[in-house]
Amino acid sequence: MKKNYVFLFSMLLAGLSSTAYAQGELIQQSLPNPDNEPAPVFPVPSERQLLWQETEFYAFFHYGMNTYTGKEWGYGDEALTTFRPPKHPNCEQWVQAAKDAGMKGGIAVVKHHDGFCLWPTKTTDHNANNCGLSFEVNVPKAYAEASEKLGMKYGFYISPWDRNSAHYGKDTYVKEVFLKQATELAQYGNNQFEMWFDGANGGDGYYGGEGGTRSIDASTYYDVPNLADSIHKLQPNCVMWGVGDEARWIGNEAGWAGTTNWSTEYKPSRGAGEYGSEDGWRWFPGESDAKGTNMGWFWHAGEQPRSLNELYKFYLETVGRNATLILNFPPDQNGELPDATVKRMKELGDLLKTRLGNDLASKAKITVSETRAAGANRSYIADNLNDDNKDTYWATNDGTIQATITLTWNEPVNVHYVALMEYIKKGQRVKSFTIETTEDGSNWTARATDQCTTIGYKRIIPLNGSTTDYGAGYTVKAIRITINDSKACPLLHTISVY
User: CA gyration radius for the chain?
Assistant: First the structure.
């Protein structure tokens, strides 16, 4: 019996050898890691989460019954004749303004808590096409078409809470109303990037005339697994935000994320959403929502856009801190963005181009303290950091969690920001880093020392430490970035300098 075990073991070893013979032909076995790629640090993002993160900055368009009542949360009993746009809402104007603002897409609110739907849904009579207008209203259709025409990403906000529906809080609501509405919306366009489910759930409402208060357990009531499965079959790249559980609320409506911000989190979360959790066991990246105007989420008479400097600050403290930013600009009662809003959005886009549009790193010589050994088809050299290719990256060897990267210019350059991007396909790794500059090539000065913690998808560091004061910048011959601590060998795919 022992001889049989020895024989079987010998045969197993032979099967694992690098070469073998079959029918007289030599077969070359594949090595387990021919490209010498670093092992992932789990958790890692799904493909749709990665595509969502790359959207970075996008618009929120709150429009609906509340635009005409002056409310933020409608009760659900509003007369349908209250909704009175003079023509179909101008979705193309919304999308063009977002594009001019430097955004990559936007989310249109098509159903808020009042249950009023901006498309000809089969699930409720409480929709825009029962208002006695002389034209059909279909905001999701028009918005998707405008976005595709202008090359912008798009998605829809649909409130899970429905203060109009008599079904809400009962067993019939999710199956007969909510899931059907979400599925209807998923059929507009071919590449939705996000479906937005608000966290406000349950309370008092009209509820088909029954009134009263209804409470639900959002973690189970909305049948999220079935919801996600249904939507992903129609829109495979659509992230389910909020109730859908693929991206997290950053934790405020004030346009900032923590200077330390992990894309990993527990379930349920342990602490404020602005920071994530270093040892969280799921990939749950943060989105920050903020108002671009000085009143509510919906349009109100007399509102004005926030100052340009405040909007830029929002950008630096969200997109620049490993979060996405969804910035709200509400259309008015004409179904259009006010002129002052359109102007401010264009100013914001121009400012982003001026301050973050000329990457000085492309002209720098980059040297590193260590380079990972190349594989058969992939290298990990320093030049990967400024080759404008998100699929190449610099890395150190396994076991090396500290390293330096130095950018040097032939002539001095004036700099304000350093932007770093990790190769997050293999997980978020860097815990802390240091940025130093030198004017003469010999004497180094540390910059923004209180901000150099995590990196993640993208980190933008103002070298003067301020997200509100652009300053005069620093004239430098070189910049040195030191990775001080990392979960495993650090992987960076891009360094930019502005």
Answer: 26
Query: What 3-state class would DSSP assign to 256?
Result: coil
Mean pLDDT for the stretch of residues 114-128: 98
Six-digit token string for 307: 């100052």
Which residue type sits at 489?
C
> In angstroms, rounded to a whole number, what is the distance separating the alpha carbons of residues 316 and 143?
28
Buried b (16+ CB within 10 A) or exposed e, 303-331: bebbeeeebbbbbbbbbbbbbbbbbbbbb
pLDDT digits (tens, 9 = 90+) for 287-328: 999 999 999 999 999 999 999 999 999 999 999 999 999 999
Length of the chain: 498
Where do we find the tokens 């929120």?
60
Q: Residues 358-370, buried b or exposed e (16+ Cβ, 10 A)? A: ebbbeebebebee
What pairing do the DSSP bridges indicate for beta strands 474-486 and 430-438?
antiparallel
- Measured at the CA of 321, the angle between CA 363 and CA 386, to 5 degrees, comes to 20
Torsion sign, CA atoms 230, 172, 126, 62: negative
Half-sphere exposure of 339 (CA within 13 A, CB side): 0
Tally the C-alpha atoms within 13 A of residue 113's C-alpha that lie toward its C-beta. Answer: 16
Tens of pLDDT, residues 371-400: 999 999 999 999 999 999 999 999 999 999
**Which pLDDT tens digit goes with each residue over 233-277?**
999 999 999 888 899 999 999 999 999 999 999 988 777 899 999
Mean pLDDT of 81-98: 98
SS3 of residue 219 by DSSP = helix
- Condensed to tens digits (0 to 9), the pLDDT of residues 162-212 reads 999 999 999 999 999 999 999 999 999 999 999 999 989 999 999 999 999
Determine the distance from the C-alpha atom of residue 14 to the mean position of all C-alpha atoms in its chain, rounded to a whole number. Answer: 49
Q: Would you state the structure tokens that stand for residue 172, as one six-digit string?
A: 């019939």
Phi-psi group of 208: left, alpha or beta (phi > 0 → left; psi -120 to 50 → alpha; rest → beta): left
Q: Report CA-CA distances (Å) from 91 to 20, 58, 106, 150, 305.
A: 63, 15, 11, 11, 19
Position 5 scores a pLDDT of 40
Q: Domains of the chain by range and CATH?
A: 47-356 (3.20.20.80), 360-497 (2.60.120.260)
Cα gap 76→62, rounded to integer Å:
17
Question: Using an 8 Å Cβ cutoff, are 214 and 164 in contact?
Answer: no
Helix axes 91-100, 339-356, angle to 10 degrees: 30
Distance CA 99, CA 375 (A): 40
Which CA distances in Å does 372 have to 327, 403, 490? 40, 11, 10
Q: What's the whole-model pTM score?
A: 0.93
Range list of H helices, 136-213? 139-150, 171-173, 179-185
List, edge to edge, every strand of the sheet that includes 323-328.
Answer: 239-242, 192-197, 153-158, 105-111, 57-61, 323-328, 286-291, 248-249
Residue type, 324: T
Partners of residue 106 on adjacent β-strands: 59, 154
The tokens describing 69, both together, are: 């009542």
